[in-house]
Amino acid sequence: MKLRKLMFVLPNLFTVTSIFCGFYAITLCSGEATPVQLYQAALAILFAMFFDGFDGRVARLTKTQSDFGMQLDSLADVMSFGAAPALLVYKWALAPMGFWGLFISFAFMACGAMRLARFNVIAMRNPHGGGGSFFVGLPIPLAAGVLVSLIISHHVASQGEALGDGARLPVALAAGALSLLMVSTVRYRTFKDARPGRKSALVFMAMALTGGFIAQQFHPAWVLVTYFFAYLVMGLVESAVSVRSRLASRKVGAGAGAVAAVAVAAELDEDDDEDSEANAAPDDGPAYL
């Protein structure tokens, strides 16, 4: 019995470790943070992603899922992938932009919190809804991963130099776009239904070859950025194709409905004509006495 109770603690330990990584990243960003400290904070958030990715899997393997664990995981995500990346990107790129830099950083954290709240509401209404094949909106850990990958890649590729003024606006636009994607209804794959097989092997080989090509032609630091942005683009493309398919099916359905309505109206007209002919008065003729 005691062992069973200890099993419930195990996934929560992963979640608490993720919180610690986020808190450590915040301490590194506070004050006049150097580029090295910002790089270390980005690595801490990357480690937080690792622990966050395993707490749910450990809970499912040990069959210790609970409402407490779900709420704790959401709170951990707000800190590790909301507050910490928002402060990190503010210190790294957006602080010189004044109010707009502060607003964009806050918007990233606020949109991430709203995205988590929406996920929790859907999960409470449908306990089995969290195990589907798609996320609704960009998950906050992956949004944080995009920013973190940019910071890590820039630090490694530039050998620790500070970000140039010309790159601040693209970073601000990227942070704003990630904020909107988190609260959007764009669907992103969870890959929970992925199984070892020929298709999975081909996808893995394609990713490995793409990463090797980028590392050889450009810089190994940009491989992580490529993977994150490929996931973003994949979700946008799949959602666009899905919307287009729904619109096409609605047009087909509307066309079929219009044809059916015309056919029904024609049948009704024919019935009315037959009734009018049957009930019509006879022509004037000789009177029969």
From TrEMBL:
<comment type="similarity">
    <text>Belongs to the CDP-alcohol phosphatidyltransferase class-I family.</text>
</comment>
<keyword id="KW-0443">Lipid metabolism</keyword>
<keyword id="KW-0808">Transferase</keyword>
<keyword id="KW-0472">Membrane</keyword>
<dbReference type="InterPro" id="IPR050324">
    <property type="entry name" value="CDP-alcohol_PTase-I"/>
</dbReference>
<feature type="transmembrane region" description="Helical">
    <location>
        <begin position="169"/>
        <end position="188"/>
    </location>
</feature>
<dbReference type="GO" id="GO:0012505">
    <property type="term" value="C:endomembrane system"/>
</dbReference>
<dbReference type="GO" id="GO:0003882">
    <property type="term" value="F:CDP-diacylglycerol-serine O-phosphatidyltransferase activity"/>
</dbReference>
<dbReference type="InterPro" id="IPR000462">
    <property type="entry name" value="CDP-OH_P_trans"/>
</dbReference>
<feature type="transmembrane region" description="Helical">
    <location>
        <begin position="133"/>
        <end position="157"/>
    </location>
</feature>
<dbReference type="InterPro" id="IPR004533">
    <property type="entry name" value="CDP-diaglyc--ser_O-PTrfase"/>
</dbReference>
<keyword id="KW-0594">Phospholipid biosynthesis</keyword>
<feature type="transmembrane region" description="Helical">
    <location>
        <begin position="200"/>
        <end position="218"/>
    </location>
</feature>
<feature type="region of interest" description="Disordered">
    <location>
        <begin position="268"/>
        <end position="289"/>
    </location>
</feature>
<feature type="transmembrane region" description="Helical">
    <location>
        <begin position="7"/>
        <end position="26"/>
    </location>
</feature>
<protein>
    <recommendedName>
        <fullName>CDP-diacylglycerol--serine O-phosphatidyltransferase</fullName>
        <ecNumber>2.7.8.8</ecNumber>
    </recommendedName>
</protein>
<feature type="compositionally biased region" description="Low complexity">
    <location>
        <begin position="278"/>
        <end position="289"/>
    </location>
</feature>
<dbReference type="InterPro" id="IPR043130">
    <property type="entry name" value="CDP-OH_PTrfase_TM_dom"/>
</dbReference>
<keyword id="KW-1208">Phospholipid metabolism</keyword>
<dbReference type="InterPro" id="IPR048254">
    <property type="entry name" value="CDP_ALCOHOL_P_TRANSF_CS"/>
</dbReference>
<feature type="compositionally biased region" description="Acidic residues">
    <location>
        <begin position="268"/>
        <end position="277"/>
    </location>
</feature>
<feature type="transmembrane region" description="Helical">
    <location>
        <begin position="224"/>
        <end position="243"/>
    </location>
</feature>
<dbReference type="GO" id="GO:0008654">
    <property type="term" value="P:phospholipid biosynthetic process"/>
</dbReference>
<dbReference type="Pfam" id="PF01066">
    <property type="entry name" value="CDP-OH_P_transf"/>
</dbReference>
<keyword id="KW-1133">Transmembrane helix</keyword>
<keyword id="KW-0812">Transmembrane</keyword>
<dbReference type="GO" id="GO:0016020">
    <property type="term" value="C:membrane"/>
</dbReference>
<keyword id="KW-0444">Lipid biosynthesis</keyword>
